[in-house]
């Protein structure tokens, strides 16, 4: 919205700053951060009053989690409110990729909110049916995949770009839409599975979003793409503003989610943020790089898949408990130890993902 202040500029005054994506990204970050600090405590108080007993705790979960009973959930509302407000304020609202990513984020937040509400109101861990969640998730992701394909350059539309191999494109034709659906839905559910310890999910989300935001900015500038030998996707640079809003809102949330958490993000936040990561990857043609940058989420999801399949086949478990962060809890690792080590791993993976921009 504030971008339109550039119409008041003569090219050499303060209003000219609003032309620059980096300036507006900084503004989005600060706006989201202030939003989080201002509304965090009031939101937590409202959630505590409305939810009473807070988020239900799994009876078969780690013993240390029972002390968290009564902690309110749906804290993702704080992150979503912060990033949506900052994006609408600072991004160019004539950019289709901004609206595509916002669409996925808000739609997945609504699915997560319905799931959280069902759990809290029933006071059990059974929320919205998994089949219903997946069906709605795939529909939303299908719309987003088709949306992105319409605004990709003709030479990239419905193509799969491979990291490292600069001139290699795989023509997926209309199979690109199902592929994009899998990327977005998989990302949303992987982040959802990771959100099991205080502060565990939000920092890797911020790290991955920052990385993808940098990639979006790079592939949206023709001079950067020529230097880096990556595919140019006009318009994606504006996604950096959205990414900055995620980081600012995430930090505001982490202030209250740091151990011991005063609030959980719930499915409202985890599904929305995971879906946003997938949507950014699809928009920027870096779907495979998301698997590297978000490698921690991939491992968390794979640990659940492996556990379920192996147990059905043999009646035995590979891990003491899945997702894998619970496995380390069962092994006796302290919660902060797991969280901080997983943060370190996510940062390393983000650096590797960024390196794919230059390794060609």
**Counted beta strands:** 2
- Give the helix proportion (percent range): 55-70%
Distance between the termini: 37 Å
Structural class label: mainly alpha
**Strand count, sense and closure of the main sheet?**
2 strands, antiparallel
What can you tell me about this protein's structure?
With 360 residues, the protein is an all-alpha fold. It has one domain. It has 13 helices and two strands; from the N terminus they run ααααββααααααααα. The protein has helices at residues 21-51, 76-90, 96-122, 130-151, 176-194, 202-219, 222-228, 239-257, 266-283, 287-293, 295-314, 324-330, 335-355; strands spanning 159-161, 169-171. A two-stranded antiparallel ribbon has the order 1-2. Helix 2 (76-90) runs antiparallel to helix 8 (239-257).
Q: What's the quick description here?
A:
The chain has 360 residues and is mainly alpha-helical. The protein contains 13 helices and 2 strands. A two-stranded antiparallel sheet has the order 1-2.
What's the helix and strand layout?
Blueprint lengths: L20 H31 L24 H15 L5 H27 L7 H22 L7 E3 L7 E3 L4 H19 L7 H18 L2 H7 L10 H19 L8 H18 L3 H7 L1 H20 L9 H7 L4 H21 L5
